[in-house]
Amino acid sequence: MPLSLTAVFADVPDPRIETANKLHPLTDILVIATCAVIAGADGWDEIAEYARTKEPFFRRFLELPNGVPSHDTFERVFAKLDPDAFADRFGRWVGALCESTGLVHIAIDGKSARRSAQGTFTGCLHLVNAWATENNLFLGQVPVPNGSNEIAAVPELLKVLDLRGALVTLDDAFGQKDVVTQIREQGGAYLVTVKGNQPTLHRAVVAVFEKAAEAEFAGCDMAGEAGVGHGREEERYSSFKA
C-alpha cells in the first residue's frame, strides 16, 4: 500500500527556529518541492512557480496557512535540512511505491554533474543513482564523498531502498563482495558485470563459459534478440550457467 508524502515527511526534523517568521509547515514545503521536482522543476524559482500554479491542488491535502512558500523559503529550508533524514523518508516512500507497482529491476550507476562547483580533483560532483527501469522511476541518489570513489556511496544508497524481490544490476566498478552481500541481506538478487579490473574473478567466469562452450552449452539456458541501436543492426546472445 503506497504511503502518502504527507505521512512519510511528518516526522522529518524541522531545522528552523520557532519564530513569528516561520510561516509554512515543513511538511508543506517538502511535499510541494518533491512533487515539483518529480514534475520536472529545475531550481527554486521553478519549484515556487509550480507551487503557485498548483496551489488549488495542494490545498486539498496540505495546510498552507499562509499560501505557498516563496523560492527563497524553499532554498533556505533545504539548505538547513538534514539530508539523511530526508533521504530516509523519501526512500521509504519510494519503496512503498515500488512495491505497489511490482518493481523488478533496479539499475545502479554513477554519474558526474559536470557543471557543479565542487572542490574535487575533477571539479565536479559525482553521484550514484538508483533507477527502476521497468517503471521509469528514479529511486534515489547519493553524492560520492570527497576524496573517495563511487563504491563508498553504494551501501548508503542501497540502505534506503526496499530490495525485496528486486534484481539489482551493477557495472564492474560496483562488483564488490560487501555490496552484493548487502543486496542479498536486504532480500534482493544481483547481476554484476565482470571485467578485467577483477582478474581472478574474471578468469574464473571465463573458465566456466569456456568449459560450457566445449560441451556446446549443454545444460545452459540461452537467449537472444535482434534490433536496431545506435544506427546499426544488432544481435545479442546470452548464456546462463547455474
Structure description:
With 242 residues, the chain is an alpha/beta fold. The protein has three domains: 5-84; 102-192, Nucleotidyltransferase, domain 5 (2-Layer Sandwich); 199-241, no CATH class. It is 39% helix and 21% strand. It contains nine helices and seven strands, in the order ααααααβββαβαβαββ. The chain has helices at residues 5-8, 26-38, 44-53, 55-58, 71-80, 83-101, 150-159, 177-185, 199-214; strands at residues 105-113, 125-132, 137-143, 167-170, 189-192, 221-229, 232-240. The strands form two sheets. A five-stranded mixed sheet has the order 3-2-1-4-5. Strands 6-7 form a two-stranded antiparallel ribbon. A hairpin with a 2-residue loop joins β6 and β7 (232-240). The longest helix is centred in the middle third of the chain and has 19 residues, at 83-101. The model is unreliable at 115-124 (pLDDT under 50).
User: What structural class should be given to the helix and strand makeup?
Assistant: alpha/beta
Order of helices and strands: HHHHHHEEEHEHEHEE
Structurally, the number of domains stands at: 3
* Poorly predicted sequence stretches spanning 5 or more consecutive residues: 115-124
Q: Please state the CA-atom Rg, rounded to the nearest Å.
A: 22 Å
Shape: elongated
